From TrEMBL:
GO CC term, one of those recorded: cytosol
Family recorded in the similarity comment: Belongs to the D-isomer specific 2-hydroxyacid dehydrogenase family.
Gene Ontology MF terms: glyoxylate reductase (NADPH) activity; hydroxypyruvate reductase [NAD(P)H] activity; NAD binding
Protein name according to UniProt: NAD-binding D-isomer specific 2-hydroxyacid dehydrogenase
InterPro entries the record matches: D-isomer_2-hydroxyacid_DH (IPR050223), D-isomer_2_OHA_DH_cat_dom (IPR006139), D-isomer_DH_NAD-bd (IPR006140), NAD(P)-bd_dom_sf (IPR036291)
Keywords, alphabetical: NAD, NADP, Oxidoreductase
Domain D-isomer specific 2-hydroxyacid dehydrogenase NAD-binding residue range list: 112-284
Pfam families referenced in this protein's UniProt entry, alphabetically: 2-Hacid_dh (PF00389), 2-Hacid_dh_C (PF02826)
Residue stretches making up the D-isomer specific 2-hydroxyacid dehydrogenase catalytic domain: 58-316
Amino acid sequence: MSDKPELLVVWPMRARQMDELASRYELLRYDEAEDKPGFLTAQCGRVTAALTNGSWGGMSREMLQHLPALRLVASSGVGYDSIDVAACTEAGVTVTNTPGVLDDDVADLAIVLMVSARRGLMQAHEHIRSGTWAQEGPRPLGSRSAGKRLGIAGYGRIGQAIARRAEAMSMEIAYYARSERPDSAHRFEPDLLRLAEWCDVLVLALPGGAGTRGVVDGDVIRAIGPHGTLVNIARGSVVDETALIEALEQGALGSAGLDVFSSEPNVDDRLRALQNVALTPHVGSATVETRSDMAQLVVDNIRAFFEGRRPVTPVN
Ligand code: NAP
């Protein structure tokens, strides 16, 4: 039997960091187990640390009940809505995430989705690839983004990185959150519906979870309007997706740029069939550079835990 400490792998990271972890720890590969409940019961009674992902792997209250010795959940990703943080806190388990290192990539994608949705760039790309340009001629005109009004719902690290990019596009910016940032040059709007009525583009950079579930409802979506755009790089759960699809189908909302969906990876057929959308498969942080930085932060948190130091980026 190995004398290395055990690490439960609920959701893995990139190969290089998994190799580094494997050199230090005995990896218990729950992610690869066929009988997952049986694996937890048989192998994980003494495990003190777990590696997971805040979007997909998570850590539920039920899983915690099978892990009585657990003291650390090290998660990759800044969002942690799939982790039951309250249950972890009750059980004396520290949760860590990876804030800050992914802001630029996610903000870049938000701008790309905004421009792509408003100008139909994904459809234009397909127009060339499918060979229809020569038969059907030019594509319909799109809508400008520069100089327009941008509402940012969720004005934290990523929301502010989006604002910096939008400033360079001469966009007029206002933001929604629970609390005002007195140091900000942008206007605070405490009412999400009023922000939607005011803006041409509403970008969502809120956390997921119970506090924001469905806050972008049919009223908010329709308030953005037939010439407006909704961009969601936050979480699918923040938006009433049925209301969004209806508004896009009926032209009550002009367009949408979406990186996140209510039921990933199974995106609603009606959404996939629409022409006034730009869709990406939850790739906000998916660059080699950012995923390496995220994975390194996870490794640093796990090492700090096993060496008796304070975690680098604790959530609770
Ligand atoms: P952050 O720095 O914590 O910012 C969150 C913002 O949302 C803050 O302005 C916060 O302000 C506001 N907020 C939180 N709860 C709220 C509520 N119930 N109602 C209204 N406003 C609320 O987080 P971040 O690092 O910018 O990340 C934001 C989110 O982006 C993540 O949680 C994740 O879901 C998503 N994300 C997506 C991807 C992707 O691949 N697409 C990648 C990374 C992150 P107040 O506290 O004042 O309300």
